[in-house]
Protein: Translation initiation factor IF-2
Amino acid sequence: MAKIRIYQLAKELGMTNEELLELLDQMGVAYKSHASTLSEEDAEAVRELVKEQRGLQEKLAEEERRKSLPRRPPVVVIMGHVDHGKTTLLDYLRKSRIAEKEAGGITQHVGAFEVKTPGGTVVFIDTPGHEAFTTIRQRGAKVADIAVIVIAADDGIMPQTEEAIAHAKAAGAKLIFAINKIDLPQADPEKVKRQLMERGFVPEEYGGDAIVIPISAKTGQGVQDLLEMILLLAELEDYRADPNAEPRGVILESRLDKQAGVIANMLVQEGTFHVGDYVVAGEVFGRIRALTDADGNQRKEAGPGSAVQVLGFQELPHAGDVVEWVPDLEAAKEIAEERKEERRAREEAEKERRPRTMADLLRAMQEEGKKEVNLILRADTQGSLEAIQHILARESTEDVKINLLLAQVGAPTESDVLLAQTANAAILAFGVNPPGSVKKKAEEKGVLLKTFRIIYDLIDEVRNMVKGQKEPKYKEEVLGRAEVRAVFRLPTGKQVAGCMVTQGRIPRNAEVRVLRKGQEIWKGRIASLKRFKEDVREVAQGYECGMGLEGFDDFQEGDIIEAFQMVEVPA
Ligand SMILES: Nc1nc2c(ncn2[C@@H]2O[C@H](COP(=O)(O)OP(=O)(O)OP(=O)(O)O)[C@@H](O)[C@H]2O)c(=O)[nH]1
Structure:
């Protein structure tokens, strides 16, 4: 076994000898002095321990740093089924903030608005619906911390309610359920709660952790409770942002105005933007000419949590583009141009690499190291949907989880494709055909969409996906062997073995083991592989070579060096 001296290990780990000796005392490892050698196991244990301690210290320091930052207001999006009252709720909230201020104030649409309460400020995204929300998220920005899912008490959970929940969850937003229209005589909030429970959202009053608030967006009843709940959740989640960090924001909307030019509404997420700053948003750059807030005030600067209208972009940025501060015009132009190029290259590459088959999708998932299969399920009837769900529930294994993001009756929609793209999911449809436009969109976005006529074909497909997600198994494959014929020592003290390859081949990047009298005495990597002083990538059977190993300097004539690699065993 290769041994290491204490002072060598201290140097490797960037510690003083005293520090390392103290650590060894704590670990109960005996030594004489800092020149004593440690066994490989002890040295490895020290490395692990130091790594762990450093990781912990870094985490604590990071948490400490975060705690010293000021809090920022939570950003909330309102989602739900058509006509369940999203717009009415936004109107009510908007009005409540205007009423608070002196009468006659001119308001400006900046894509989000603040509601100030004695308990704190809440920022609401000013457009309802999950389509806009998903488009924003697709560009990589996370905008909303919390999604308020509005459910009309006279109607209950409807298909778009489920979609909204799926989208919000995929975005990592916290959920709050607002049961709306409780002023109506036919309102049945209890029914809605039951429906929520059937979907695994157990209200707090029944011992669960789903936040459910009855409201009337029309009369305002319960809206105060909703705001308080949002602030309570925000406090728990402890949202913070650094006003002095490098500024970053996200575009909520943009439009072209005949007089003003490009108008972009931006939510600031980190740092503080100033008039005069150079910025890049996606592939578009500009210099901030003016910042206007929701009250119509011209601002010189905008910090975390503020929504502002920005003038100064050269072209229209997209909703969801991340706005970054850059030092000067040159950088701004260069970055925007670089991104355009990158996109073109990506589009080209994507054309060739669209996951058209299950195997492609699996490969993509594996590359990301995921151990779950995300699915969107569409079926012709409630009966078949339930049957499929029932069977699928049994297919989830401990190793691989099946996540049903959405299971609904009806043909797949474009919004499903967006959800699938952002959540890296496959859309499986049973007995329903997606419209051509949806197929096209799926193809464009590289989303796997398949239709089935037989339930078991669909299940088989999912089984294959699950199988593909299991930890791959490896076995060792011996590539070649070399015999040590002579041993040299370099002036540096490093040993080099003069070898003859007696079998197979020895590749420079293979793993190797040293065998002495048939016993493995060392395992590791090749440090150098040469033929007549030339570095080579590989040496084949019947040829001589010089080989040095990483951390092994104990060769004896007659040792065998065996090269091997680990290969995946097909499931
Ligand atoms: N009685 C009563 N009616 C409400 C309430 N909230 C909304 N409504 C009514 O329900 C209808 C639909 O409300 P909207 O706010 O437009 O619904 P929405 O969810 O924004 O609908 P879309 O924008 O079409 O998706 C309107 O006629 C509202 O006046 C409420 O709390 N009580």
Observations:
- The pocket of guanosine-5'-triphosphate is lined by residues 80, 82-88, 128, 180-181, 183-184, 216-218 (CB under 6 Å).
- The longest helix spans residues 40-67.
- Residues 248-340 form a domain with the Elongation Factor Tu (Ef-tu); domain 3 fold (CATH 2.40.30.10).
